[in-house]
């Protein structure tokens, strides 16, 4: 039960915001606040949590609340008011995770300051970012030390730091400007705060990954921008992060970057991204030829390190180098043998013209450009290779980490300044090598392991990477469901969690999300409708095409024939495609008159394209956007900037994705229909998202056109149609006629 003082604080804050900003109360927003507060009210206080025993269900295994809140609900205000007062009362931290850095900044720079200003609530907050968003002072110092130092580093590190020795005068001027701004206190090393555009090639030399950072042993530790930001994270009431940073923290055990899960209530905005992002973070891959080259280079690098007399480490590094020296050669030779094993498999796969899903004697399924092993089961000869490779990479990783320990000790205890400086220069390179070796160990362990019988398997597949005349073989492994990962690292540990988005359900159910994310049985679910008057604001048009989208040639011809009848140059339009090839074919099939006003995703960066589109509309010019899946969500074109959304077809997932193919095989093995269990609900989900590009405010109006008769003719189409918002419908309008030649 929510304590009365907390209830009163929430109610008073909401009333004060409405009064201060002259706003009307929204029913959906008030309902969302109430449901969140009620769901989380069972969280125990910090003191009670500390005294809880594992027998009580696990420390930190708090309530989970899923809320689908339609566009216009006002989600940010709702979850902040529903959570923050309660969290402060319980002594818990709040981690608010969005899907992107851009939305992080919107929440931090606009939403939270506005709530703090008008609500009367007193709370602190900060924006948390990964290490890669901050400049490394040690790296900047090394770059600016001068040619002598650069040459010395090149002699030490070889090609690994060649980028530092190929600076142009403009590069050096940029880095000197960075140092100058830091010295004057005008910049604090955050890439996103730099006044101007920083290319990746400019930024990469002055930042480090976790394995390259020497932490407290670094001479610049006390001034380090990343660690200063991290210290602030532990002090505030609310930390704004993104999904990726939360997952990185969980992979490190939790509490490494962000507050510990047991002390945290998580808010996942745009929560539909969480399962896929989790799979990405806990997946692994390796490139065979590139790894062989890396092993050869690394062996030489470690030999140079062992010969560095300035370090004066009493020969410890030399002894470690002697132990791991054979491993570089053994691993390179064994990877060469693995290449000989895998190349014939891929060549045979490329030549085979059988239908997708055909089985071979290797027990695998063909899957387009990737060769996906059926149910994740790899051939025995490949598993045998993987067992040996995993073992050797483990020993190599352990040896490289031992050298890193010695270098850390040298940074602190070396008798001479040159010795400390050499150790500090060597450490990032050896740390990076240890991280890459550990990643190799993870991949080969994944290929050597057998999946647990009663759980969803991991997807394992091979693919080819073409780069100019050279090509490489890539091995990849990924969970097909995030359920086990999130259960172990998050749901069983967190104090509580709220998952929200405008679209979370599929076919009006949360089954797919619950399956993919492994949501616990105690999870509570709510669907809050949008305040928009869909029936009067928008019309769904389904023209008669006389063909199925599976007949791509006829379907494309029908779209080309109907577009001039449907598009109105006085309206801003957005056309969404599931296939790049079809998008290009439709564009090429239209007259020059139409092509001149179309902005195609292939021709511009996303932000640039949207800017051009808005500029055209502001100048009274016609504009039509042609885009793919990335334009079907997260694109905000309110009012006059989008009055017609056109969707080429029901957005079913690409059938040759290795992860989805393996999941479908497993569902079939469980006696379930993958098409009805997975494909149809997720297609409905994506169609709702795509149609959601039209109405962005209560005053917006317009049309949605779907070039897919299956929503009328197929048994599953009717359920997809029913899951859409209640637009008025115009099915097979007689005014839209295909030419006889179409």
Automatic annotation (TrEMBL):
Keywords tagged on the record: 4Fe-4S, ATP-binding, DNA-binding, Helicase, Hydrolase, Iron, Iron-sulfur, Isomerase, Metal-binding, Nucleotide-binding
Top EC class of this enzyme: isomerase
One Pfam family, short name: Helicase_C_2
GO annotation terms (biological process): DNA repair; SOS response
Superkingdom of this protein's organism: Bacteria
Sequence ranges assigned to domain Helicase ATP-binding in this UniProt record: 15-315
Positions contributing to [4Fe-4S] cluster binding: 136, 213, 218, 224
Textual note on the cofactor: Binds 1 [4Fe-4S] cluster.
PROSITE patterns, per database record: HELICASE_ATP_BIND_2
SUPFAM superfamilies: P-loop containing nucleoside triphosphate hydrolases
Names of the cofactor(s): [4Fe-4S] cluster
Enzyme Commission no: 5.6.2.3
Physiological role: DNA-dependent ATPase and 5'-3' DNA helicase. Unwinds D-loops, R-loops, forked DNA and G-quadruplex DNA.
Family in the record: Belongs to the helicase family. DinG subfamily. Type 1 sub-subfamily.
Name of this chain's protein: ATP-dependent DNA helicase DinG
Name of encoding gene: dinG
């Amino acid at each position: 039960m929510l304590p009365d003082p907390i209830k009163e604080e929430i109610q008073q804050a909401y009333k004060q915001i409405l009064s201060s900003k002259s706003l009307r109360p929204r029913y959906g927003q008030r309902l969302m606040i109430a449901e969140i507060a009620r769901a989380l009210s069972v969280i125990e206080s910090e003191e009670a949590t500390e005294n809880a025993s594992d027998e009580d269900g696990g420390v930190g295994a708090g309530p989970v609340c899923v809320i689908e809140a339609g566009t216009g609900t006002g989600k940010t205000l709702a979850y902040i008011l529903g959570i923050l007062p309660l969290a402060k009362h319980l002594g818990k931290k709040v981690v608010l995770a969005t899907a992107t850095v851009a939305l992080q900044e919107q929440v931090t720079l606009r939403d939270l300051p506005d709530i703090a200003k008008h609500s009367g609530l007193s709370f602190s907050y900060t924006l948390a970012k990964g290490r890669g968003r901050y400049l490394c002072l040690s790296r900047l110092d090394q770059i600016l030390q001068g040619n002598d130092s650069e040459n010395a580093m090149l002699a030490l590190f070889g090609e690994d730091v060649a980028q530092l020795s190929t600076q142009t005068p403009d590069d050096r001027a940029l880095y000197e400007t960075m140092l100058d701004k830091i010295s004057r206190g005008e910049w604090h090393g955050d890439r996103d705060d730099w006044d101007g555009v920083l290319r990746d090639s400019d930024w990469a030399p002055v930042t480090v990954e976790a394995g390259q950072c020497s932490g407290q042993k670094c001479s610049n530790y006390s001034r380090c921008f990343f660690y200063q930001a991290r210290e602030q994270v532990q002090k505030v009431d609310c930390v704004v992060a993104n999904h990726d940073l939360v997952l990185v923290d969980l992979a490190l055990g939790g509490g490494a970057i962000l507050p510990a899960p047991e002390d945290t209530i998580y808010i996942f905005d745009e929560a539909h991204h969480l399962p896929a992002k989790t799979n990405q973070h806990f997946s692994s891959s390796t490139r065979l030829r590139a790894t062989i080259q890396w092993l050869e280079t690394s062996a030489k690098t470690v030999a140079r390190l062992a010969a560095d007399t300035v370090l004066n480490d009493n020969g410890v590094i030399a002894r470690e180098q002697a132990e791991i020296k054979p491993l570089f050669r053994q691993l390179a030779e064994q990877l060469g043998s693995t290449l000989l094993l895998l190349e014939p498999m891929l060549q045979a796969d490329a030549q085979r013209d059988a239908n997708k899903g055909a089985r071979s004697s290797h027990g695998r399924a063909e899957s387009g450009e990737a060769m996906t092993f059926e149910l994740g089961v790899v051939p025995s000869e490949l598993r045998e290779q993987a067992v040996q490779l995993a073992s050797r990479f483990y020993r190599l990783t352990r040896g490289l980490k031992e050298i890193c320990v010695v270098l850390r000790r040298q940074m602190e205890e070396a008798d001479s300044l040159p010795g400390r400086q050499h150790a500090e220069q060597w450490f990032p390179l050896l740390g990076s090598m240890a991280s890459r070796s550990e990643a190799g160990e993870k991949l080969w362990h994944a290929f050597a392991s057998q999946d647990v019988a009663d759980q969803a398997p991991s997807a394992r597949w091979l693919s080819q990477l073409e780069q100019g005349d050279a090509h490489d073989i890539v091995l990849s492994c990924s969970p097909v469901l995030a359920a086990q990962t999130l259960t172990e690292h998050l749901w069983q540990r967190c104090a509580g969690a709220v998952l929200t988005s405008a679209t979370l359900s599929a076919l009006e159910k949360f089954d797919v999300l619950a399956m993919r994310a492994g949501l616990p049985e105690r999870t509570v679910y709510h669907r809050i409708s949008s305040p928009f008057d869909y029936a009067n604001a928008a019309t769904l048009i389904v023209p008669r095409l006389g063909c199925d989208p599976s007949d791509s040639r006829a379907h494309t011809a029908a779209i080309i024939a109907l577009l001039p009848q449907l598009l109105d140059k006085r309206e801003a339009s957005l056309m969404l495609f599931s296939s790049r090839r079809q998008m290009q074919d439709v564009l090429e099939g239209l007259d020059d008159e139409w092509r001149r006003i179309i902005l195609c995703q292939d021709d511009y960066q996303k932000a640039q394209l949207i800017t051009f589109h808005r500029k055209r509309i502001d100048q009274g010019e016609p504009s039509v956007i042609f885009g793919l899946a990335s334009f079907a969500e997260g694109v905000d074109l309110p009012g006059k900037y989008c009055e017609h959304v056109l969707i080429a077809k029901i957005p079913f997932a690409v059938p040759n994705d290795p992860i989805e193919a393996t999941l479908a095989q497993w569902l079939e093995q469980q006696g379930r229909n993958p098409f009805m269990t997975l494909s149809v609900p997720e297609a409905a989900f994506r169609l709702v998202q795509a149609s959601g590009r039209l109405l962005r405010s209560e005053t917006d109006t317009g049309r949605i056109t779907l070039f897919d008769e299956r929503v009328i003719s197929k048994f599953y189409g009717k359920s997809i149609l029913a899951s859409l918002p209640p637009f008025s419908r115009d099915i097979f309008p007689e005014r839209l006629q295909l030419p006889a030649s179409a």
